[in-house]
Specification:
Elements (H helix, E strand, L loop, with lengths): L1 H21 L1 E10 L11 E7 L5 E8 L4 E7 L7 E6 L6 E5 L2 E8 L7 E3 L2 H29 L9 H28 L5 H10 L5 H10 L8 H12 L12 E3 L5 E3 L7 E7 L4 H16 L7 E7 L4 H10 L8 E3 L8 H5 L7 E5 L5 E4 L3 H12 L2
Parallel strand pairs: 1-7, 11-12, 12-13
Antiparallel strand pairs: 1-4, 2-3, 2-5, 5-6, 7-8, 9-10, 11-14, 14-15
Helix pairs in contact: 2-3, 3-4, 4-6, 5-6, 7-10
């Protein structure tokens, strides 16, 4: 009986240790060349950076380089799947790889860190395969154009007919390249690599229907992964029309939270883009305050979210009370990236003020409501 109990404890303990180990990423780096490109000094320290949902780099760890090698032990807290990290500390770019449970082996030329090779974990191994396919496809594209040019008389290739033919051959080769990439990603649709590369390298080449089909092809196991969310947002953002669902943008609030539009499902939402320096915005704010006051008893059905395109925190935070907007349940958000805000870029915002009125399902009801018309429209909806 005692032996069975001890065996059970050991097995449980082993499982616990195994679970802990699986939530740690060990990064073992070796420099094939440790000399930096522009200074010709040996690299002595590297920095591990995570890229957040707004593509900001967040420093998470660092390591000294000794005898051309380094090791990083990175604990994976709140782990949702493999994510892209960047290794910095170079004078000519950085190294990109995936962080996930296990041991990642990096081989790096310090003069050309972007060419680093990462192996040892599933997503990194898959990424190396993908890069080979992409490189092969690009070479095939080059070879097709070269063969075409060599088969034509000298001088013809620069004629109008020659230029048009080159464009056609190049377009066909590029289509084949994208098809090969798509096939590879569809064959590995349960990897975080799939939604990431589908968004970054394939989406812009596709029709709306094809883009939706590609999004639906991502494995349900990745439904909660941030890369799947970003891919979905990019597909939705192609056409923002009345009746369509708005992309689920990230909104950092004044109290340090990160909300998304989905957090307000079940309520009508007025999403108002503004900035402290924007004169037309300041002229419009009294109407937004009027709307707030006339709907303050309906906060279970309606919320105002004001997203600032300021890039200075003090200017943003000072303007909220100064303009009379520091009121209960009025949500204030900003990522402080100004016009480079991922939220603004996702929604195609090129001028402010800009308003979006959403229904409780997150679908767009109206755009650019202003003044008393805005107040009247929202009140009519809430009285239905």
């Amino acid at each position: 009986m005692l032996q069975k109990l001890l065996l059970t404890c050991l097995m449980c303990g082993g499982a616990a240790l195994s679970a802990w180990a699986q939530q740690t990423c060990v990064i073992e780096g070796t420099f094939t060349n440790d000399r930096l490109r522009h200074t010709d000094k040996a690299i002595d320290k590297v920095y591990l950076n995570r890229m957040d949902e707004m593509e900001n780099l967040i420093l998470v760890d660092s390591a000294q380089v000794s005898d051309g090698k380094f090791t990083l032990n990175h604990a994976l807290t709140d782990y949702h799947g493999a994510e892209v990290y960047l290794l910095t500390g170079f004078d000519n770019g950085n190294s990109v790889f995936f962080v996930e449970p296990g041991t990642v082996t990096l081989r790096i030329d310090a003069a050309y860190p972007s060419g680093a090779r990462a192996t040892g974990t599933p997503t990194n191994d898959l990424y190396e395969e993908y890069k080979k396919i992409a490189a092969k496809c690009i070479q095939t594209q080059i070879d097709s154009l070269r063969a075409f040019q060599q088969s034509r008389p000298a001088g013809w290739i620069d004629s109008d007919d020659g230029v048009a033919a080159r464009a056609r051959i190049g377009g066909e080769a590029k289509m084949r390249t994208n098809l090969e990439r798509a096939r590879f990603l569809l064959d590995h649709n349960d990897s975080a690599l799939a939604p990431l590369m589908m968004r970054k390298e394939l989406l812009y080449t596709l029709s709306d229907d094809a883009a939706n089909d590609l999004r639906q092809s991502v494995s349900p196991s990745l439904e909660q992964h941030p890369y799947t969310e970003a891919f979905s947002n990019a597909v939705l953002a192609r056409h923002i029309d009345i009746g369509s669902e708005l992309p689920n943008i990230v909104m950092p609030t004044t109290d340090g939270k990160k909300l998304t539009l989905k957090d307000f499902r079940g309520k009508y939402v007025l999403l108002d883009f503004w900035a402290s320096w924007c004169g037309p915005c300041r002229r419009e704010i009294p109407y937004v305050i009027k709307l707030y006051n006339e709907t303050r008893d309906l906060k279970d059905k309606f919320v105002i979210v004001s997203f600032s395109l300021d890039n200075k925190q003090k200017s943003w935070l000072d303007a909220i009370p100064a303009m009379g907007m520091q009121l209960p349940d009025w949500v204030h958000a900003s990522d402080l990236h100004g016009w480079n805000s991922p939220a603004a870029q996702t929604l195609g915002i090129s001028a402010i003020p800009k308003t979006f009125l959403l229904d409780p399902d997150g679908k767009l009801i109206a755009v650019d409501l202003r003044g008393d018309l805005m107040v009247q429209k929202v009140k009519e909806l809430l009285q239905q």
